[in-house]
Design goal:
The protein contains 21 helices and 21 strands. By secondary structure, the protein is of the alpha/beta class. The radius of gyration is 40 Å and the shape is elongated.
Length: 567
């Protein structure tokens, strides 16, 4: 029943009203004067107020006026009680906002009918408002806790649910963070609409693979989260493998076939953290290195933690490295195995940090490759290398080539030909003497789009070398489609030439492939005379390595070219 406030200074009338209301099972409140009635109305939020007009101090008109000024009480149904039946008084009360008027004395039936009418009318007005408010709250919850494109939980709701799951779990809880990488068929980045469509498609696959709604979330535009109770660590690996199988299937969107590429970072609670924040942070660290794993997923470990710390340090210091000229290029000569003449040099990057000392590429390039820092570093390498190589031409070595390693991220940049054209024009170095070393992995990652970029580079006159050949998966048919000038034999085969028949056979095959493609084979990592002689015997065109010359500074290489052009 309703909660009704009675404001009446006459004790007899007030008592009678309370008895009548109580007999109808209404909850009642009572005040003997207007000020106390106002306080009760604000404190208790009654469903209806019965109020006498003529009271000492704060009369009924003042009570109603004060209630109307307060948004919290303005909508409470209000019935005046008065011994006066003057029309002017009634009009004044209605003008102030009263809902009804009862003239004393009134019967019990008149009172109950007035109350019932006012409560019913108020309910009919209030119900749609309540429903609208509930719908508004639902919409706000949807916005606050759900991803609009996929309807999956967002990071806020996911964090809360993971925290609750960890709190009540009796065993291991596996958290998997899944990062999506994809491009359009022509290699261009996905636009916002396509990204959302692809995310929605992957969300459907996730929902089918992991049916518990509370265990799945979209954490940002390209990252999803999944958690699940498991019995053993291997169960997390099994789940990751299953998700990779399902999610990496091609998606057809608007007549375009997109190939998702998913990487997964895994952390286990409570082994890798007791709270949701700790487990998520550790899974994120694992995710940073997952794309480099052949399996496609990476568990968190102390080694991953160390890598994450190193990654953070590198990113913090790379900008200063460029500003302070801490980067350096060394050059390893490449030697023709027939004439012994130096025909070129490969540019090798080093970082001389004032506090840490010498850093080799393995310590920072992988981190730079994950960001656009590799593009800025690459531009510096092109400009610096071409400037040094232009000086070789001034020494009377007009045909000596410069080899520069090209990263996957640089290769994907649509302005790569323009950047190279700018560097060669700026330094006066001939683009026909520039050789770009591209790995098989880079070509495979950009298959379908590499041809256009390579053709643009070839139009500039730039030469192409397939780096680390033999360690990837290129087919002969694919190689024939590429405008290659050189195949570089990976150092792992050269190191085992004398002891491993397979290494020797592969090396011979690479030399034969290079000859059949009318290109040249260059061996890397030559350390001994025996390796050098064997490479010469099987027809390898050129080689580089410490047996011939260690990497040299630009000044030392110039001096070598002046005094000893043959090695």
């Amino acid at each position: 029943m309703a909660k009704i406030l009675v404001i009446e200074d006459d004790l007899t009338i007030r008592t009678a009203l309370l008895k009548m209301l109580g007999a109808e099972n209404h909850e009642t409140l009572a005040a003997a004067e207007g000020k106390r009635g106002l306080d009760l109305a604000q404190e208790c939020s009654p469903d209806l107020i019965l109020c006498d007009i003529m009271m000492p101090g704060c009369d009924g008109y003042e009570v109603l006026t004060q209630l109307q000024r307060n948004p919290a009480t303005a909508g409470i149904p209000f019935i005046f009680l008065t011994a006066k039946a003057d029309r002017q008084d009634i009009r004044q009360g209605m003008a102030l906002g009263a809902d009804d008027y009862l003239t004393k004395p009134f019967t019990r039936q008149e009172l109950m009918e007035a109350i019932a009418i006012r409560l019913s009318k108020h309910a009919s007005i209030k119900e749609p408002y309540i429903q609208e408010m509930k719908q508004a709250i639902d919409r706000l919850n949807q916005i606050a806790y759900r991803d609009p494109a996929t309807q999956l939980a967002n990071r806020i709701l996911f964090h809360h649910r993971l925290q609750e799951h960890l709190k009540h779990a009796s065993g291991l809880v596996a958290l998997l963070l899944l990062k999506l990488n994809a491009t359009m068929p022509d290699g261009t980045p996905l636009d916002g609409a396509t990204t959302e469509s692809l995310a929605a498609a992957l969300a459907e696959r996730l929902t089918e693979a992991v049916p518990q709604d509370e265990a799945i979330a979209r954490l940002n535009s390209n990252t999803f989260g999944v958690f699940q109770s498991i019995a053993h660590r291997r169960d997390a690996a099994t789940l990751a493998q299953s998700l990779l199988h399902d999610l990496n299937e091609p998606c057809l969107l608007d007549n375009d076939t997109l190939q998702p590429k998913i990487s997964i970072g895994i952390a286990l609670g409570p082994d890798n953290g007791a709270t949701a924040s700790e487990v998520i942070d550790h899974a994120r660290m694992a995710l940073q290195t997952a794309h480099r794993q052949s399996s496609g997923y990476q568990f968190y470990s102390l080694e991953v933690d160390a890598w994450s710390s190193q990654r953070t340090w590198v990113l913090q210091h790379l900008e200063k490295a460029l500003e302070r000229d801490e980067l350096q290029l060394l050059y390893q000569p490449q030697v023709n195995l027939i004439s012994g003449r130096i025909i070129g040099a490969e540019a090798l990057l080093r970082w001389h940090h004032p506090d840490v000392g010498l850093l080799h590429p393995a310590q920072f390039l992988a981190v730079a490759e994950e960001t656009d820092w590799i593009v800025k570093i690459g531009e510096w390498v092109f400009n610096t290398g071409c400037r040094h190589a232009a000086q070789w031409q001034e020494l009377g070595r007009p045909g000596m080539k410069l080899s520069v390693n090209l990263s996957a991220r640089q290769f994907r940049k649509v302005n790569l030909p323009q950047a190279i054209a700018h560097a060669t024009a700026l330094t006066g170095f001939s683009p026909q003497l520039l050789v770009l070393d591209i790995t098989e992995a880079t070509l495979l990652e950009n298959r379908g789009t590499e041809g256009k970029t390579l053709q643009q580079l070839k139009q500039l006159g730039v030469q192409m070398a397939l780096d680390d050949f033999g360690t990837g998966y290129s087919s002969l048919h694919h190689l024939k489609q590429l405008p290659l000038d050189c195949l570089k034999i990976d150092r792992t085969f050269v190191a085992n030439l004398l002891e491993d028949e397979d290494a020797l056979s592969i090396t011979k095959a690479i030399v034969a492939i290079a000859q059949s493609l009318q290109t040249r084979a260059i061996a890397e990592g030559v350390e001994t005379d025996a390796q050098l002689n064997l490479l010469r015997q099987i027809g390898c065109y050129a080689a580089q390595g410490n047996r011939l010359s260690p990497p040299l500074s630009a000044i030392d290489l110039q001096q070598l070219l002046k005094t000893n052009p043959r090695l």
